[in-house]
Amino acid sequence: MESESEKVRLFTEQLGIDKKYLPSKRYSGGVHERFTDRYFVDKFPMYLPPNASPPPVVSFSFVDPGFESLDSFKTHLQACLPLFFQLQSVRFHYIATRETHHNRAKQLFMGHFEQHWNPDSPEGLVDYFCLRKQIETGEAQKLSTADLIAHADAKLKFNHSGMENLYQKWRSGQTELRSVRKEYQALRRPETVAFIFSPVNGQVALFERHPKPLVKAARKSTRPVPFTGDLTRSFAGTER
Q1: Which residues touch 106 (CB under 8 Å, ≥6 apart)?
Q2: In angstroms, how far is CA 133 from the centroid of its own chain?
């Protein structure tokens, strides 16, 4: 799936996910107070494995830009997490020319899901149920701004029919928090997550952003630079 429209159609039409969960950026137009929302603006590779049994499991990716920090990766994750929390399974390829950030990136990535899967974690399921009940019973004024923000974020993460039914059972007294924690294990999304480090051989310049002097020097050269790497074999080998 290379285009924005292909990706949007997959998630909204085929998987029935609301557009509000898709990673997006809002751009202002020439007309005052007119905006345009664009989706998947990072344009990282995304594909569906061939001959996969339904429901489709999307393979996402992030291409390491070669910076010393993981700031760009953190930003990308924050944009994609609302969508990830709506899927049954997530496969994520971290594509890089070297292993510099491999372990840190994996810990950061998996940490989000480990926290999400733990019902007693900060901003987890139990907190969400308790905050929601306070708001619905007219006690919102007792909550801090941080509590209200946490509730809004959690409402997006836990927004599907199974979780709603579980909340209503707890709210009406049909079940206790102990049972809520147990039932959550079968309801949580995503059910499975795979973080795949995908090293690519080939020229570093294909995947890294360089200082301007290097870019200018490259533009002055008229000699073609041969590409001797083989990205396909390396990528496929890692996938296996």
Answers
A1: 94, 195, 197
A2: 28
Q: Give DSSP secondary structure letters for 92-110.
A: EEEEESSSTTHHHHHHHHH
3-state SS class at 131:
helix
**Whole-structure pTM over 0.85, yes or no?**
no
Whether the bond into 213 is cis, omega within 30 of 0: no
Separation of CA 173 from chain center = 34
pLDDT digit string, tens, across residues 32-89: 678 889 999 999 999 988 777 777 789 999 999 888 899 999 999 999 999 999 999 9
User: What does the alpha-carbon distance between residue 157 and residue 122 come to, in Å, rounded to a whole number?
Assistant: 13
- Give 3-state DSSP helix, strand, coil % of the chain, rounded to 5: 50, 15, 40
Nearest-angstrom CA–CA distance, 64 and 100: 10
- Strand 35-39 and strand 192-199: the pairing is unpaired
Q: What angle do CA 202, 208, 209 make, to 5 degrees?
A: 145
Query: Which tens digit of pLDDT belongs to each residue from 120-146?
Result: 998 899 999 999 999 999 999 999 999
